[in-house]
Amino acid sequence: MNFHNILINWYLQNKRDLPWRKTTNPYLIWLSEIMLQQTRVAQGMPYFFSFTKEFPTVFDLANADEEQVLKLWQGLGYYSRARNLHKTAQYVANELNGVFPPSYKDLLKLKGVGEYTAAAIASFSYNEVVPVVDGNVFRVLSRYFDVESDIALLATKKEFTALAHELMPKDNPAIFNQAIMEFGALQCVPKSPNCPVCVFTDSCAALQKKKVDVLPVKSKKIKVTNRFFNYLILEDDLGNTLIQKRTLKGIWHNLYEFPLLETQEIVGFDFVSKAAANDIFPAYTIIGIEECSDATVIHKLSHQHLHIQFWKIKIKDRIENGIEANNLKTFPFPIAIYNFILKKNDVIVI
């Protein structure tokens, strides 16, 4: 079909020079695909290089400590990806002798590997005829063919998967998958695409019908929850502080943080002082409390907006098993806390 010929020709002339496109090694392709979930290429690239340097094989990743993996992942977000990455590496290394499953169907059985990631690995590593369908593919196909189906629906994903399968050249599915994703990332972008220079100017239905800005259709809205975090930074006379690991399921699982006071709204000095003395640190003698910043930090996650305040609490007592301030950076923290540690050297000397 002329569509795939034009698309692939565009790709060969415009594709970015990305390291995971220079290999068919399923370990490296899997690593890149997991990292690029919900992440821009520019942000993910340094992490890919760091991981491949530290863990050149799946056995190296499997033998690492989880904290080491989380620390290297720090700042990339969606930390369940890192935990699943580590568990899957252990499974592949220990149960499959380091060999990744060679088919889409079997790749789906790996923890953290969904339909898109399995299709990418299967086509890029094994040239299996299976289409990838992500946001880029939805956008390109919905605009080109004027498809108004709601992409939030499971039935629509099946519709687009069937359409992509029909369009894909069966002798080289990998390059088609790479091409359509790249086209969506560079040319057929979500907002204000440069349609006059597009190779599909004469055949794109959305352009002809002036519907580029309304496609693809997505009706489902993400409900955002606001949460209010007050981090309490203890400091004893030695300058040591206290941190804890988030062991409950949810955001930042198994990352470290300062003792947390979560509230229903932004609170002030009086509320924090009372809660710290009576409920959170009753065993310590508090001799001073102050807020560490003038403004609340707002950290936006996909479904949650975290309103974060930091409070410095000086105590008279010694902290048992306290952490020296200059050792804080060795622990995996959520990036909002890590950035605070780096910037507030007037509060915590690094």
Instruction: Write down the secondary-structure element order.
Output: HHHHHHHHHHHHEEEEHEEEH
User: How much helix, percentage-wise, in residues?
Assistant: 40-55%
User: How many DSSP helices?
Assistant: 14
**CATH class type of the largest domain:** Mainly Alpha
Global mean pLDDT = 92
CATH topology of the largest domain: the name is Endonuclease III, domain 1
The description of the largest β-sheet is: 5 strands, mixed
The shape is: elongated
CATH H-level superfamily of the largest domain: Hypothetical protein, domain 2
Tally of strands: 7
CATH architecture of the largest domain: Orthogonal Bundle
How far is it from the N-terminal to the C-terminal residue, by CA? 61 Å
Tell me the domain tally. 2
Uncertain residue segments? 346-350
